[in-house]
Design goal:
Elements lengths: L2 H18 E4 L3 E7 L2 E6 L2 E4 L5 E7 L3 E11 L5 E12 L2 H6 L4 H18 L3 H6 L1 H15 L5 E13 L1 H40 L3 H21 L11 H17 L6
Antiparallel strand pairs: 1-4, 2-3, 2-5, 6-7, 7-8
Helix pairs in contact: 3-5, 6-7, 7-8
Length: about 260
């Protein structure tokens, strides 16, 4: 046989053998199509295919993510918000991922958007802001259930940011400020009641109410001045201790002159 023919045959065989070898890297899988029809799925390592007849489609099984751009939505109490999220997912069954859904990435993205808006629409604004972790879990469960036939696993969903409209932010800030003032007034009232109780108990148990009352009032006065001085913009108002003592004495005398009191 002519050497050239032998060499050509050898090269053809070598080329065929080389073309039949497919090495799939760790963390990847591949779908083999023969003449456009699904043949099998290949795992990582050394694999063989039929050159010219087989087409190899490689995909990763590692975790992937889809960043969802900010979406407008409305809460149950009709508050307009803008929410963006990120989806983490991975392929479990490459055959289903290729043949059971069209454009897997885009389909996942649209499903996340739909589910996100639906979940937000069932919640009042306060729950949306305060229960973000619970909402993430619920959305993940819903997505995982919807995508079971797609050959993918939803790993987690994270709401990145919740933006309120400018008017809603102003209204919320005003509400929080009013609530803060209300709590401050309640705290002051409780403190005043407690102070009166302490003074009353001290006077009742004291052998010299006049001195005890003077001491407690002066002590409260000094503490109040110290609290005021802590503020950079505060103005400290000093009161004549003699006037404070005289006012205290007048109060005690009035108490003693009331019918049924005093010696």
């Amino acid at each position: 046989m002519d050497f050239a023919i032998v060499a050509a045959i050898a090269l053809a065989v070598a080329g065929y053998m080389a073309g039949s070898v497919r090495i799939i890297k760790e963390g990847n899988v591949a779908v083999v199509e023969r003449l456009g029809k699904y043949q099998r799925t290949m795992g990582s390592g050394l694999n063989f295919v039929v050159p010219l007849l087989d087409t190899v489609l490689v995909e990763t099984t590692r975790e992937q993510f889809i960043d969802i751009e900010p979406q407008k939505a409305m809460t149950r109490d009709r508050a307009n918000v803008e929410v963006d999220a990120i989806l983490f997912w991975r392929i479990l069954d490459l055959r289903k991922a290729y043949y059971e859904v069209e454009e897997l990435d885009e389909s996942l993205k649209q499903l996340v958007i739909t589910t996100l808006r639906s979940e937000i629409g069932q919640l009042p604004l306060e729950d949306l802001i305060s229960s973000r972790d619970a909402i993430n879990r619920q959305i993940m469960l819903n997505l995982d259930r919807e995508t079971q036939g797609w050959g993918v696993k939803i790993v987690r969903v994270e709401i990145q940011e919740i933006k309120l409209s400018e008017d809603l932010m102003k209204a919320r800030d005003a509400e929080l400020a009013a609530e803060s003032r209300r709590k401050a007034k309640e705290s002051e009232a409780k403190a005043a009641v407690e102070s009166i109780r302490i003074i009353s108990d001290a006077l009742r148990d004291s052998s010299n109410p006049r001195v005890t009352l003077q001491y407690l009032l002066v002590k409260s006065y000094i503490e109040a001045q110290q609290d005021v001085s802590k503020s950079e913009n505060a103005k400290i108002i000093f009161m004549d201790p003699k006037a404070l003592t005289e006012a205290t004495s007048e109060f005690i005398v009035a108490e003693e002159l009331e019918p049924g009191k005093g010696g």
